[in-house]
UniProtKB/TrEMBL annotation, chains A, B, C, D:
Domain Myo-inositol-1-phosphate synthase GAPDH-like, first and last residues per copy: 238-342
GO molecular function: inositol-3-phosphate synthase activity
GO biological process, one term: inositol biosynthetic process
Top-rank taxon: Bacteria
One Pfam family matching this protein: NAD_binding_5
Name the record gives this protein: Myo-inositol-1-phosphate synthase
Family matches, as Gene3D superfamilies: Dihydrodipicolinate Reductase, domain 2 (3.30.360.10), NAD(P)-binding Rossmann-like Domain (3.40.50.720)
Keyword Secreted: no
Family: Belongs to the myo-inositol 1-phosphate synthase family.
Keyword flag Cell inner membrane: no
Keywords annotated in UniProt: Membrane, Transmembrane, Transmembrane helix
PANTHER family: MYO-INOSITOL-1 PHOSPHATE SYNTHASE (PTHR11510)
Transmembrane segments: 6-28
Length: 404, 404, 404, 404
């Protein structure tokens, strides 16, 4: 059988994670980089017939004027996280991909993000209704698909974290929500417009950010109606991954956690956006949710996220866990996590695209809950125990393989 | 139904862990302490009909002359790990238990441990054959059972870590091993003699130490023959517990671990014994085994255990994990674990006794592999993933409960 | 010569530090505790003829209703920082000292602190002018001195950190400031009223808190006028001490610090008060000041102070220092400081009282700048290099000794 | 005045530190790198009239066959510590310097180091007397000086750490030591032969390694006799620097240190050599010496140095300091130091050469004790307090400047 051609349409296509996904896929195609960090390269997923690195074409939406290459060079120079020689070899490909990237929408993204955007987009925002923005987004995606002769497109949201949307104001039924799209009072933010754009077209949607995206019930309804699938939200890459691995230990050992303090510092663009109290709120909520679920009670928690410029992409997290042992004795575990954020995220994004495409091909519809292990706040999955979430992924793979 | 009376016969009955088990059980009986750290107090084990704290009577073997109370006071004064007021309230009970503790055996325990023992025991060692020592140990246990009208006894080894025994020199069949017991050349060390003593009597045996104990095939055969059960070895309380929780994360995320360095410092008697290179060897092996199994490859590892007197019971571990992310980028996780070793171990010992007694009552024979999550080197269980080991425990509990 | 009797008059006399000073002095008098943490017990100060532990009598002002003993028991039970047996032996003395403690003033202390106070004091505050409050405070101190036949009194401020006072609103001359004391619009807060009360009487004043105290030029003028001495502010006990020791190393090695992040967590009453953004501002400013002075430039800094109840008196600080090495290479130093805050502070308070009394006896007047090493923000001393500050103390001691 | 031309003759000229010194000086000359890490670039030394980066010519001795460029590429690729682009620009200069590097001597360097050497050198070692080796070394240095028309040469030892030499076997007088140089039983190791070679020629010698070098009394006598100067030993770059900064704090605050544990891990060639127990002994002694001097008593200490290949040049140190506070309460400070070893060392080597050349020009003879702050074990200086050592450097600079 001829290989199927798969398009990855990235929202926030010139951000740190997106640029790393892009340079990474180019490097993997060319055989210039190892498979590290890619879950889908583990032996237990070898029989799944997943799309190969060579099958992918990349495009997307952005709001800033910058070249992919310049974005990547930042990761080389400031963060020393990607090899200069590797990037030099990928430059021509990056320049070509640049041309697939179109202006996105700023609907309800808040001040901090608007300030990043081009003047044109800010003006457009004042004029365009949400519906018009969706139409434009859809036209871009369809043009990308046609021009590149793609068998399938997957849309992934890698754009900046939006301020929280009050979910109570979002109508629960698709037909009611659809009506708001023509109005200036539409409560949704851009991430949800992108989700609607994709799902209406029957295209799978993955939300790697803590923004609302496809989470509202009405949009979940739309996905089912259009016979497609989606999942979110907020990629689980560092401190929260550690929480979902350590908290089950404290639970299983009946060691009550009295307090769990987590301080995160980093200096990339994501960090700058999250430095705004409004945008930070969305993220902190997502990082703080799981402890209660895993432990069955609520220790005092503190999550801080601070922009420290010199760190660049190097997210450093320090967590202090104060727990009680036998006879009530207080004990302490601390950890220090030093990882380059975009390089932790990028392989998971590639994994999610490969698995989502495979699930869609398999006929999975609605929420892809088996992807829970990839997310800080997996929609529809109350279990935050990482190993148990990973078992869900393995079981799904076994079932899909058995069907072949 | 009248409550069954259960005896806990502890080898190393005046050591740090033993003393904590003892004062802890007294405190729990009197309602003076919370349940923290006891796995068997989790809701999922509530329906198992486990023995209650009030059902236990404690006795055991020792080689040093010291009172339980004095041993506990060390944990109060030096380590500030147990409350002075609590201990004061338990003193009369501790003094009574002291009388149940008999002289043990020093067979092949090596120099370091022999130096701790009384002169009498050292002299006895020169005269007694292994068989004679076993007979004496059995008589002590049986007297304990009769005098205290116990329905069941469980033997737990909490004695000092012995130097390694060359397993190749231990006959594989019980009938061949039994013959060596009359000879001065018997290759076994004390921990295995205690195991044989218990199992021959049909009494369950739990080995909380890294010493060989009941691990040899010939002794496993004996357990089956005498229709009883056993498990080991080396309680998983700190750094290794962390490894069995963190390594599966690196495996599941395909993040190759390049090196894993673990430094352990502490200052109790256990630390003093492990400071001897011979005895340390046994422990390091036990702490180092699991990474290969979980990861499927062998990163460079280093495990150090050092005696730092001022720390007392406070085991402080610092681990440095160097791993490779996407595009081969090196990243670092470090953790610092500060826990009082005896208070981490003691509740697990109580758990193991309760679960072993229950398993025996249930008819389980041979190795109790469902107890794997409690051990650094669970005999007969290749899986070191903590969460999956814990699932084995939960499944067992469900089956036992279903049978009721 | 007969021993001189010295009174220590503590503002905030039942707070954590005050209670530790008190129980500590009682224990030292009785020979129940070692000298650890007392700078004045170092050999280089042995020839200074400082007051002995037995020479001190304690009294002070408070705003809460609580007994010294109950306050100390918190440090025993919650924080496991002081020995239960020690406290039992000191109880009678604590109960006696309780009687020397009088109601203080709430002038401009802000909401957070007012909430701690008794109803009576809150009512009094509404009625009393600053001048009246000062008069009352002076009467209390004089009664204490007379009743206890004290040769000298030293006043130390150990009360809760006040919200910042706008220093621009404080008149620069004492005669102008004195006039505001009769008005409701007086800009000073309680710490400065206490300072005025002491200095007007010619009594030395030490400000261990970051509150303004005697720092305003007008109050410094008063001290000189009344022929007495004073110093402040903010005791240097933990993270900032570390900064004043580490930053000089980065400076001397020409290793540019790019960012210095400090996170502090603790759970005592001080932590609760500092949890209020207004009060926290005063503290953060004091902790953040010195880096610029030592380094000669301003790296990005972040200081957080968070109330984590379970930690009690155990202040845990995590600092992350990101610096540039040769050829611009970024490197990292992190440290973790785990100390009981009140036990770090208390010996310094005793040192300050002994040294201040000695300086006063020696004829030193105005600011006691040689005490700089004890303070986060030493008034009048631009040098924050700890070792150089300590040399100032040693030089002073040599000079005083030479004069004898 | 015309610039003076200065030669740096490096023993171990292709090692990690040497390669970094070399590439660094080339980069500094070309204006491609910032001054970070160079103490001599601080404002307080601006008036000293030190040699400029452009004044230096590099040569030296080696025992391995490798090119400087290849050595530097390791620091680029494995350790990601030096910029690839920077190195590319310096390659021609490195290739030229390669030609100035001559075969050294293996006298008494022990097995581990011999294994690194070329066959030729191993054979030569069997034949040559120490005296013959010294003569050869001197001829190489003189040829270097003549050929490059150098006004002054400074010899710096940057070669691998030798196993300890029993100092008791080294004659105390130069005339007695000189006699042993003709014998196979000469107790000195190579580092001392190099020292003798330099000093006999009146050339200053700096020993950056913990090897004995010029430390013996007889060699110190030689330096004076030949009217030249020298200093050592063991550059203070990481964990020990931290100790010399932190220990004075514990001393000044009268906080008794109970134990100080330091674990060092790294993976460069130096680490491989130090992995040999013999060579490690020399280093550990040097790292462990200072605490007693600073504190005035000897806490329990532990220093480990372990070779962890994946870390490359990144020396990671974890130190655990257990100290006693007021009323005897135990408290803990831990730190984690992550620095690239060669990049920490290289600027100090350049500083030492500049300062030694200046001191020689100034007429300083014998031990240059004012350089103490640069060394873990400064010969002839009992004071290990870093800030006070740095004051010695500043005072010297003031005096030299005043003389100008
Ligand atoms: N480890 C990780 O990096 C990680 C983990 C979990 C989640 N995330 C989330 O992934 C997202 C991307 O992270 P990043 O580090 O790449 O951030 P980034 O700031 O580097 O990139 C975000 C990009 O989105 C663009 N953008 C913003 N609003 C847009 C809009 N409305 N339409 C189109 N483009 C828009 C921005 O211009 C920017 O280029 C963030 O929301 C982040 O919180 C990242
Ligand atoms: N967290 C933990 O404390 C932990 C975890 C896993 C395993 N372990 C193991 O548990 C054991 C006990 O630890 P501990 O801290 O109580 O040590 P410990 O040294 O305080 O106690 C051991 C006791 O065993 C006694 N003993 C030694 N040889 C004996 C013999 N042949 N017969 C009878 N008694 C003997 C000693 O006299 C001592 O009282 C050690 O082997 C240790 O390695 C402990
Ligand atoms: N390591 C340290 O503990 C440390 C270091 C530097 C500075 N300080 C400062 O020392 C002070 C005391 O610290 P603490 O831990 O004892 O705090 P604390 O909250 O335990 O004690 C403060 C006491 O002051 C009393 N108080 C408040 N306002 C008062 C007023 N106007 N008059 C009289 N009493 C008043 C409170 O009731 C309380 O009893 C704080 O300002 C703190 O920031 C402490
Ligand atoms: N931060 C630091 O890197 C640091 C700090 C203090 C001291 N030091 C010391 O500096 C020295 C150099 O460190 P490095 O990291 O460059 O080590 P390295 O192993 O990379 O370099 C040492 C070089 O010396 C050469 N050599 C060995 N014996 C020799 C001999 N007899 N004659 C000539 N050359 C010889 C080796 O071949 C090697 O090239 C070591 O002794 C080290 O302990 C280094
Ligand atoms: Na123990
Ligand atoms: Na306090």
């Amino acid at each position: 059988m001829a290989r199927r051609k798969i398009g990855i349409w990235i929202i926030g296509a010139k951000g740190g994670v997106a640029a790393t996904v892009t340079v990474g896929l180019v490097a993997l195609k060319k055989g210039l980089a190892p498979n590290h960090g890619l879950v889908t390269q583990l032996p237990q997923f070898a029989g799944l017939d997943l799309a190969s690195f060579g099958d992918f074409t990349i495009g997307g939406h952005e709001i800033r004027e910058v070249s992919l290459y310049d974005e990547v060079v930042q990761l080389v120079r400031v963060s020393k996280a990607i090899d200069a020689e590797l990037v030099a070899k990928c430059k021509p490909d990056l320049d070509k991909i640049d041309k697939n990237i179109k202006p996105g929408t700023l609907w309800n993204v808040g001040n901090k993000i608007e300030q990043l955007a081009t003047d044109d987009l800010r003006k457009l925002k004042a004029k365009e209704t949400p519906r018009a923005a969706i139409d434009r987004v859809q036209a871009d995606i369809q043009e990308f698909q046609t021009k590149n002769k793609l068998d399938q497109v997957v849309v992934v949201n890698l754009s900046s974290t939006e301020p929280p949307v009050d979910e109570a104001t979002v109508p629960a039924k698709w037909k009611d929500l659809a009506k708001t799209l023509d109005k200036k009072t539409c409560p949704l933010a851009a991430s949800s417009l992108y989700a609607i754009a994709a799902l209406e077209l029957g295209i799978p949607f993955v939300n790697f950010t803590p923004s609302l995206g496809s989470a509202p019930a009405a949009i979940q309804e739309l996905a089912i109606e259009r016979d497609t699938c989606h999942m979110g939200h907020d990629g689980k890459t560092g401190e929260t991954l550690m929480k979902s691995v350590l908290a089950p230990m404290f639970a299983a050992r009946n060691l009550p956690v009295m307090s769990w303090v987590g301080h995160n510092i980093f200096g990339n663009l994501d960090g700058k956006v999250l430095d705004d109290p409004e945008n930070k709120k969305t993220k902190v909520r997502s990082k703080d949710r799981l402890l209660h679920q895993i432990l069955g009670y609520s220790p005092q928690t503190l999550v801080s996220i601070e922009y420290i410029e010199s760190l660049g992409d190097w997210k450093t997290a320090w967590d202090h866990i104060h727990f009680q042992g036998f006879l009530g004795l207080p004990m302490v575990l601390t950890f220090q996590w030093q990882g380059a954020d975009s390089l932790l995220a990028a392989p998971l994004v590639i994994d999610l695209v490969r698995l989502t495409e495979r699930a869609h091909r398999n006929g999975d519809r609605g929420l892809l809950t088996f992807l829970a292990s990839f997310f800080k706040s997996p929609i529809g999955v109350p279990n935050h125990n990482f190993v148990e979430q990973f078992q869900m992924l393995q079981s799904w793979a076994e079932k899909v393989e058995a069907k072949k």
